[in-house]
Amino acid sequence: MDRPTIDHRGPEFAALAKECLEDIKAVFQTEHPVLIFPSSGTGAWEAALVNTLNPGDRVLAFETGQFAILWAKLAENLGLKVDMVPGDWRHGIDPAAAAAKLSADSGHEIKAVLAVHNETSTGITSDIEDLRAAMDNTDHPALLLVDAVSSLATAAYRHQKWGVDVTVSGSQKGLMLPPGLGFNAVGPKALEAAKTSTFPKGYWRWDDMLAFNEKGFFPYTPATNLLYALKESLAMLREEGLYWNVVDRHARLAEATRRAVLGWGLEIWAANPGEYSNSTTAVLLPEGVNEAAFRTLVLDKFNLSLGAGLGKVAGKVFRIGHLGDFNDLMLAGTLAGVEMGLELAGVPHRKGGICAALDYLTETRKQ
Amino acid sequence: MDRPTIDHRGPEFAALAKECLEDIKAVFQTEHPVLIFPSSGTGAWEAALVNTLNPGDRVLAFETGQFAILWAKLAENLGLKVDMVPGDWRHGIDPAAAAAKLSADSGHEIKAVLAVHNETSTGITSDIEDLRAAMDNTDHPALLLVDAVSSLATAAYRHQKWGVDVTVSGSQKGLMLPPGLGFNAVGPKALEAAKTSTFPKGYWRWDDMLAFNEKGFFPYTPATNLLYALKESLAMLREEGLYWNVVDRHARLAEATRRAVLGWGLEIWAANPGEYSNSTTAVLLPEGVNEAAFRTLVLDKFNLSLGAGLGKVAGKVFRIGHLGDFNDLMLAGTLAGVEMGLELAGVPHRKGGICAALDYLTETRKQ
């Protein structure tokens, strides 16, 4: 992306955009359109809502963590009514709770279900396929809108097969890019809903965007240089092996991270092993440890940025990110920084967590 | 350096060159001129020889490893007569052997002593201060020419205080740059010798170079973009703390590396702890291990480039580099790659060398 910006109304740009718009579909596992906004993931959240719903509509959401809360708050700011299923932040979405809510909604007031696939704040991945099945069993017509910001290209994700209506994502996680691109993968039912949506909207309009995209253009100035980067990112993912090689790499590095955490005698925040995240691991610190001081020490001494606890878990957990352009030895360096940081900060722990991680990495490299 | 190339006869270039030529002196610890050639370190070797000596002159060298041999071969190619003190490649230069050779040379036929400060091929650093003292004790007038290619900005080096006549170096080691710049730090005695040197020379002429450098220019096209990079590299070294912070960082990472090697139950190739290198550690593999296959496995599985054994030690040792833009967690990743590689290649070793390294790194971070 470190190249001069080309004319976004010229033929060179059209070829680039058409290639990106086509090739990004494989990452979402869909044959339907994917729209690319010059925006953050939050913008893509808003685009998903304002194109498919109407002001005053009721939506169902699940309190799985900080990002679920933020998406619900955005929906409320837009004038939607959010029915939030409470949660303890240590579990993913409960499909049975979703089914109960939808079954009870005999008047079909709920127009959409908002689900965060991977909660970056807690390191918990919800099962979208199960959620879809639970929704289908109720014969409720609500749309399924999924936030796959931090799961795209890190965990298995199948927009079309799972029957997701809109998948929201961003450029700065599994796609390995700087922030600045927001994505909406849209299914036929969502496109149908968009025809009658009455939200006032300009920037986020799907119809304009899709019409321009046909010819490789955008209705307004696109993030041109980020599209150079996206083209390269998609090539890198293909070279590694879309789909499963990329997912397997993340799963393996995540498991190694968890072995280190258990090796240190610390607790993985996620309560359910079936919901462990491929992209982030949140670690519960022992009572009395100053979480901010620990992270500050690790940053100062080792130039390693650990994630803070967010929202409800602020001060209780820290987060280890292990996604994107990331490999065995980068993880080893990361875990070394955490282990040395635990020692230097006087956090009660057992030494040698990194060895447990390396044992697992070695064992799984034997094939 | 990823910027357009400027006119190397213009005022912007002159300011850049003057700054680099002045600021590089602190790295060599000298107040005398340092010349910068668009060349590799081998070019800087040649420049040191052809400016100070005459065809047919005798020089004294020490077989400390592969680079000592290569420098001697270059000298022979130029028509110099090389008196090589044999060595077992596990020890640095023996000052007593140098003194004996010079004392025996009552006719002062030996015009220069060629010393490699840090042997990259073996991970052994010779004591240049002791060598100088031994030479001084003999009252022999031979010049002292030192190769500091892989020691500059990694180990303590004092061109002026130690009385080195020419120090040769390159851009691609402690200076953290791509290859492409060769350096000659020159002392007054070397400049005096240059006045009467009869070697045919054009590119390597010090007199032309020094005359142009006065005004911030070069006699021919300089490696302009590498000079942008050198300016930044010198700023980085100053920010970290020239002189001792940079050296201490390398010494600490080198010691951690050696603790890992000993933790694996492997042997450090360097025989004398006083000569351990700050920049490279050569590790002796157990009898029967295929060294090339081991390094290939580590490269394939972990994208980690270990150094091959060179020359006499080819197939016997591998080398871990730990110099330049390198920190605790990069070393942890490196050692993790070696440890997992040893396991996967079936090299007899004890596990947990990395833990010994991390213990040391943690302990020395407590201050």
Q: Show the largest interface.
A: A-B, 29 and 28 residues
User: How does the overall form of chain A come out from the CA principal axes?
Assistant: globular
Name of the CATH class of the largest domain in chain A: Alpha Beta
> How many E-type strands of chain A?
12
Description:
- 2 copies of one chain form a homodimer.
- Chain A has 367 residues and is of the alpha/beta class.
- The first copy, chain A, has 2 domains: 11-240, Type I PLP-dependent aspartate aminotransferase-like (Major domain) (Aspartate Aminotransferase, domain 2), CATH 3.40.640; 244-363, Aspartate Aminotransferase, domain 1 (Alpha-Beta Complex), CATH 3.90.1150.
- Chain A contains 12 helices and 12 strands.
- The first copy, chain A, has helices at residues 11-28, 41-52, 66-77, 95-104, 128-137, 188-194, 206-213, 224-240, 244-263, 291-302, 328-344, 353-363; strands at 34-38, 58-62, 81-85, 110-116, 118-119, 124-125, 143-147, 166-170, 181-186, 267-268, 280-284, 317-321.
- In chain A, the strands form 3 sheets. Chain A has a 7-stranded mixed β-sheet with strand order 1-9-8-7-4-2-3, with helices on both faces. A 3-stranded antiparallel β-sheet of chain A has the order 10-11-12, covered by helices on one side.
- In chain A, helix 10 (291-302) packs across helix 11 (328-344).
- The longest helix of chain A is centred in the C-terminal third of the chain and has 20 residues, at 244-263.
- The relative contact order of chain A is 0.15.
- The mean pLDDT of chain A is 97.
- Chain A binds chain B through residues 2, 301-304, 327-330, 332-337, 339-340, 343-344, 351-352, 354-355, 358-359, 361-362, 365-366, and chain B through 2, 301-304, 327-330, 332-337, 339-340, 343-344, 351-352, 354-355, 358, 361-362, 365-366.
